[in-house]
């Protein structure tokens, strides 16, 4: 499927040209939350392997349980041997048996994509509860199937670009969480340190604070990576409006986990194309003034 709804032909041709430079395939779905304008390219309703983007519904369900008094952000969560997993993050290098406040576990899960912290969070809130959250949010293509382990060939989790945008919209519009807990979710997501797709090609002068606190453009996102898979989904808040965007990809022939792996060179151009379409003209007018 290749949609032009809310995107002109020039943008579609640009996105098609990016696809032609990529050994895998990608889909992007984005919505301007003020105008309701939608950009859709590729199979935006098909489930893709999420990789670590699945940590967003885990985060939201954990915060929902804290809001409802099932758990609390100050509650100590203990690292058990059964939580151990390699990959991204820092807790794998620490000693089993330590305890961290639940807020810190969730923060590590998102900002450094800590896999072990993710398993601690899933054990605490339960997979069934995470998937019930997805159903409550109307995410028909989304399912978190298991805790993180690399000895299984089965997908860790599935979702579609459209589902991820719907989840981001729900966080932004505070329909799943109260204003207080929605703000906590966005604060954690804004501090993500793997800014290699959505943020990489955006105008640096808008992302750098340059004395502005906060910066003029703020990205609240979560990325994910597996061999041949690179995804990123987030909210981009600008002076000219906020939009939600999800880019999902698969099948890249570049197996490297490197800042310049193929997807992390090609896909930032998709993010920049969406940015330019939604807000580029307004930014250009301001720059020229």
In brief:
This protein is of the alpha+beta class and 289 residues long. It has one domain: 3-Layer(aba) Sandwich (Beta-lactamase).
Determine Rg (CA atoms, Å).
Answer: 18 Å
Average pLDDT figure: 92
H/E topology pattern: HEEEHEEHHHEEHHHEEEHH
CATH topology: Beta-lactamase
Terminal CA distance: 40 Å
**Unreliable parts:** 1-7
CATH level 4 superfamily: DD-peptidase/beta-lactamase superfamily
> Treating each run of at least 4 consecutive H or I residues as one helix, how many helices?
10
What is the class in the CATH system?
Answer: Alpha Beta
- Work out the strand percent: 15-25%
Task: Trace the largest sheet across and list its strands.
Answer: 2-1-10-9-8
Largest sheet at a glance? 5 strands, antiparallel
Helix % is 25-40%
Count of the domains? 1
Question: How many strands appear in the DSSP assignment?
Answer: 10
Q: What gross morphology would you assign?
A: globular
CATH hierarchy: architecture? 3-Layer(aba) Sandwich
- Based on secondary structure, the structural category is alpha+beta
